[in-house]
Amino acid sequence: MRSGTSIGANVSEAIEGQSRKDFISKLSIALKEANETKYWIKLLVATGYMSEKLGVSFLNDLNEIIIKILVSILKTSREKN
């Protein structure tokens, strides 16, 4: 729960970042939290606390919606430096 909600909190902080460097830093943290969330979802499935079907759905959403977007934004932001 903590890593999953931290993604949005860090993106929100990045939007209000004091500089491009701060923006990139906060989005990088959000990406790390997204990857941690991926680990926790896999663990929940492996231990039976979450169905495989739901876990796969969450992982697909996480990869397609969050991780790919964050990677793209970070890549573009770093290229502008």
Question: Which descriptors apply to this entry?
Answer:
81 residues; mainly alpha; de novo design (two linked rop proteins); 3 helices
Structural description of this entry:
By secondary structure, this protein is mainly α. The protein has helices at residues 2-15, 20-46, 52-79. α1 (2-15) runs antiparallel to α2 and α2 (20-46) runs antiparallel to α3 (52-79). The longest helix is centred in the last third of the chain and has 28 residues, at 52-79.
The secondary-structure element order is: HHH
Q: Could you report the average pLDDT, rounded to the nearest whole number? A: 93
Total helix count? Answer: 3
Q: What is the CATH topology classification name?
A: de novo design (two linked rop proteins)
% residues in beta strands = under 5%
Query: Biggest β-sheet: count, sense, barrel?
Result: none
In short:
The protein is mostly helical and 81 residues long. The protein has helices spanning 2-15, 20-46, 52-79.
What's the SSE blueprint?
Elements: H1 2-15, H2 20-46, H3 52-79
